[in-house]
Each structure stands twice: as structure tokens, then as C-alpha cells.
Amino acid sequence: MNRDELQLEAIKTWVSANKVGTLVLPTGTGKTYIGVTIAARQILNNIISSVLVVVPTVNLIDQWRNSFTEFYPELTGGIEFMCIKSAYKVDKHYDLLIVDEAHTTLSPEYRQVYSSITYNQVLCLTATMPEKIEYQEFLTSIAPVVYTKTLDEVQEQGGILAEYKMYNLEINFNRQDRSRYKIFDGQFKEAQMELTLLKKKHSKILLESTFDIARKYSALKNITLYLDAIKLYKDYEERYQEYAAFSADVKEIVKYSKQYWSGMTMRKWTCYESTSKLDVVINIMKRFPNKKWIIFNKSIKFAERLAKLIPNSLIYHSKMKPKDREDVLAKYREDTHRVLIAVDALNAGLDIPSADAAITVSGVSTELVGVQTLGRIIRFVPGKTALFINLFTKDTVEESWTKNRTESFKNCVWVNNLMSITL
Predict the structure, then answer these.
(1) pLDDT-based confidence at 50, cuts 50/70/90?
(2) Measuring CA to CA, how many Å separate 326 from each of 41, 58, 96?
(3) In whole angstroms, what is the distance from residue 410 CA to residue 422 CA?
(4) 314-345 residues labelled b (16+ CB within 10 A) or e (exposed)
(5) Distance CA 208, CA 218 (A)
């Protein structure tokens, strides 16, 4: 099966499912083209007259708009585009609702897009199903998965996505960062233990996970008002002793929640901004000088430090003005710029086939992000072998994050030195 056959099969399957459903396909297989084709052909054949395309980012709006122009220049109207941040507030009817990166619309807030907007047909597109069971169930209730192909299945076909090699490269903190991490990790673990004990003590009231308890109570600004509110509960008199005991411990719950959240956040940023990673990134690019790189990380501060060490590199992040982001991507498309440092952005929506190498300097634990970032560099080009390297700091939470993010990739290799990485 080639790319055209895969796309046609996906379209036919969606149509046969009464034009309601989700397509799960790896990045690079042409999900945008599938959506454009489904919408444009129906409008041109007077089957439908209105389409709304919902996407998570502005640059994806540009990608979808440009794709309609490229593939169906004769189409003169009937298509609207919105970011999810605006779309879920809209009260309007469309014949066809297309939701790209559908996993971004499943939170309790954004899922309102499926009720505020009315539609006759719905096409949801995503590279992988969300990890939360609740989100999976909601998506199934709106648009059941009708067609799916995994990355491994598509790779086996050949000629659809580029070949790739993935490595998880172990690095070590310097002495200063190791000391900082140890302090924050200790604070986190102490708070986690105390909150676990308090949760057990008040198990009939503290029903959330320890993480959710910490998130909720670390944000509590006025304990007195909160305790007064408890007294208004309908069952307060019946459960007076429970609530009284709980109220006596609320200050402790808030204290350890703040410590939990602070320790967790600071140890995370110690990993994100570890100075040890600067030299590692430079040495990787020296070892593979002919590659065109995307460097994924979570810190603008780290990106700026790294850019000073890499001549002619570009920085891209969501806080930049739209015009500046467009200019950066335009420059990266040229061969004169071979390094793009992306800060918490471009997991989705970047379509530059010449990009053939990436480093995740700092990332998260979700498999979805792993699939999306890999998708940025495996657009098919004959003879291309993409290189993807995940950095992780030994004996930190980064190690478990990297494991979770990459465990679905069968050919991912764990190494502890740069010389073990080959193409």
C-alpha cells in the first residue's frame, strides 16, 4: 500500500461509517490532505455547503488554508478556520466539522466545541489516541475511531514515511545542578509522603489523587473562607466529626501541597535548564554536521543560551508575534538555516521534508508528544534516514518520562555515550 492508497482507504472507511468518525494516522501520512479532500469534493459536488476546520494553533490554520489552495484552487468558499480557543465558544451550524489534532479538544472546557457547534458530519484527526480513559470514552461517544494505522504498520509498507533511528542518550548533571535537584526532589518526596498520609486519614473527603490534591490546595488562597464554605455543605451536620477533623488539618494539607508543587516544579526546571545539556547538544551536531536539526525543549532561557553557541540558528516559541514566527519558519525552509530551536511549540503543524534530525533536550512523559515530535522529521524523501535523539538526565524523573514517551517505538535504543549513536 502506498500513500495514495492509504489515504483513499481512510476516506472510504469514514464515508462508509455515515461520515462520522475519527481517523488515527501517524504524522506524515497526509491527514490534512484527507480532510481537505473530504471537504472540497463534497462542496464542489454540492453535497454540502459549509465546513469548519478546528485546529489547536495559528500555524495550522495557515497549513490547512494553503492545502485547500494547493489541492483545490477551484474552491472559492464554504470553508472557515478557527483555533480551538475560539471555536468552543461559537454557536453556529456547519454541514461538516473537521477537528485536527482532536486530542487537544477533549478537556472538559474545550470539548464544548462538540455541543456549541451543530453539524451533520464530523471528521476527527489525530496521530494517536489520548492516554486518559475518560478522554478516549468521550471521543468515542462523539466520533468513534473508524480507521487506524500505527507508525510501525505504516513503516512496514515502505515509501510512506522516512526511515528513522531513535536513541535515548543518558547524560549526567554537573555538581551544582545535581545538588539543586537533590534538594528539590527531597522536598517533593517529603510532601508526597505527608499528603499520602493525610489522604488516607481523610479518605472520605480527599477523594482525588495526591497530585490533584496538591494542585487544588496549593492554589487555595484563603483558608478561612474555604473552611466557612465547608460549613454550608448539606451534610455538614450529619458528618460534623469528619469535617471538624478535616478542618483541623487543612493548614497542613495546604502547606504540604505548596511544598509538593514547588518541589516538583523546581526539580523539573533543574532538568530542563541543566547546563550539562548545552555541550551535549553541540557535540551531537558536530558528530552529524550534515543534518538539518530541530531542537525541542521547554525553556526560552535555555534556547537563548543554546542559540548563542550555534551560529545561524533560529528560535521559535509561542510567545513570539505571528509574523515573527512565520519569518522564522520561512528562513528554516532555506538550506542556509539548519538549526531550529523550538520552545514548547511545533509538536504539530510543521511540514518541512528537509528536516531530518531532532533532539528532545527537555520533554514530557506522554507518548502522544513522542509521536508528534518524531513526525516532524519523518516526512518522506527518497533515501532519507531521520535521526531522533532524546536526552535524559540519569537517575531523575526525566529518565521515567523518556521511557514513557518512547516505549512504543520498537527500534528505540538506550545509550550512555554519544559514540554509540550511528546512522
Answers:
(1) very high
(2) 30, 10, 29
(3) 17
(4) bbbbeebeeeebeebbeebeeeebbbbbbbbb
(5) 14
What are the cell numbers at 183? 534538594
Say how many Å lie between the first and final Cα of the chain, rounded. Answer: 27
**Rg value, the chain, Cα:** 24
pTM score, whole prediction: 0.84
pLDDT of residue 348: 60
Q: Sign of the CA dihedral 260, 263, 269, 272?
A: negative
- In this predicted model, what pLDDT tens digit does every residue of 7-47 receive, in sequence order? 999 999 999 999 999 999 988 889 999 999 999 999 999 99
Helix (H, G, I), strand (E, B) or coil at 415: strand
Cβ neighbours of 222 (radius 10 Å): 9
Helix (H) or strand (E) holding 122: strand 117-126
**How large a percentage of the chain has pLDDT more than 70?**
99
Pair 339, 352: CB distance under 8 Å: no
Distance CA 2, CA 282 (A): 38
Residue 130 pLDDT level (bands cut at 50, 70, 90): confident
Strands (E), 181-260: none
Select from 195, 203, 165, 237 the least CA-distant residue to 390.
165
**Residue for grid cell 511540514:** 351
If 0-12 CB within 10 Å is exposed, 13-18 middle and 19+ buried, where does residue 76 land? exposed
The grid coordinates listed for 216 are: 487544588
Helix, strand or coil, per DSSP, at residue 145: strand
Q: What is the mean pLDDT of residues 270-280?
A: 94
CB 250 within 8 A of CB 264: no
Cell of 57: 494553533
Residue 341 forms beta bridges with which residues? 295, 315
Question: Do you know the residue count of the chain?
Answer: 423
Q: Which residues touch 336 (CB under 8 Å, ≥6 apart)?
A: 312
Q: Which residues, other chains included, contact 341 with Cβ-Cβ below 8 Å and sequence gap of 6+? A: 295, 297, 303, 306, 307, 310, 313, 314, 315, 316
367-421 pLDDT, tens digit per residue, is 878 888 898 899 888 899 999 999 999 999 999 999 999 988 888 999 999 999 9
Grouping H, G, I as helix, E, B as strand and the rest as coil, residue 276 is: helix
CA–CA distance, 276 with 290 (Å, rounded to integer): 24
Cell of 147: 480507521
